């Protein structure tokens, strides 16, 4: 399986739209619209173009030429500007194949270098054990359990905070 992290461009609009409409949304932020429209994709791609490699890194996860996921690191602001938040999603047909483990490792290295970070933070809904394992395989350490921290689809979840220090 050929896995690539590619920069997002206008040419990826349809692939990104298809991804955002098909992905399992149980543990995604509500800020990702659904249904994901042409307008949503255009706005997002414009923001990527304006902030890429300055405040954020965005990559499409491409397997055998198809966009099957996405991953990003967003630099925090003010006194927290040495830290970034990592987030990712992957189509269910591609789960449990090592794809996200590889993508998180590669993206973490890129973010440390390009965004000049000292640490990267990841927040995981407590039931999302697979996501926690992806982080742990990449050296992220569980730093905190934040009880009853978020609400998603009328369920209240505890969040696990993971961190990775610059290597």
Topology:
Elements: E1 3-7, H1 13-22, H2 38-51, E2 56-63, E3 66-75, E4 83-90, H3 99-114, E5 119-125, H4 129-137, E6 141-152, E7 155-165
Task: Tag the structure with descriptive keywords.
167 residues; alpha+beta; Aminopeptidase; 4 helices; 7 strands; globular
Q: Could you characterize the architecture of this molecule?
A:
This protein has 167 residues and is α+β, with helices and mostly antiparallel strands. It has a domain of 115 residues: 3-Layer(aba) Sandwich (Aminopeptidase). The protein has a 7-stranded mixed beta sheet, sandwiched between helices. Strand 2 and strand 3 form a beta hairpin. Helix 1 packs across helix 2. The two termini are 28 Å apart.
Quick structural summary:
The protein is α+β, with helices and mostly antiparallel strands and 167 residues long. The chain has four helices and seven strands.
> In sequence order, what are the helices and strands, one letter per element?
EHHEEEHEHEE
Average of pLDDT: 96
CATH class of the domain at 3-117 reads Alpha Beta
CATH topology value of the domain at 3-117: Aminopeptidase
Largest sheet: 7 strands, mixed
């Amino acid at each position: 399986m050929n896995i690539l992290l590619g920069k997002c461009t206008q040419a990826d609009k349809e692939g990104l739209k298809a991804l955002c409409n098909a992905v399992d949304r149980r543990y995604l932020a509500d800020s990702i619209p659904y249904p994901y429209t042409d307008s949503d994709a255009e706005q997002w791609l414009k923001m990527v173009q304006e902030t890429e490699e300055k405040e954020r890194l965005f990559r499409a996860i491409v397997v055998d030429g198809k966009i099957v996921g996405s991953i990003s690191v967003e630099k925090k602001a003010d006194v927290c500007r040495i830290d970034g938040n990592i987030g990712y999603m992957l189509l269910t047909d591609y789960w449990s194949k090592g794809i996200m483990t590889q993508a998180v490792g590669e993206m973490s290295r890129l973010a440390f270098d390009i965004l000049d970070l000292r640490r990267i933070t990841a927040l995981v809904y407590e039931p999302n054990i697979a996501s926690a394992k992806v982080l742990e395989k990449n050296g992220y350490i569980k730093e905190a359990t934040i009880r009853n921290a978020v609400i998603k689809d009328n369920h209240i979840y505890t969040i696990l905070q993971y961190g990775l220090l610059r290597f």
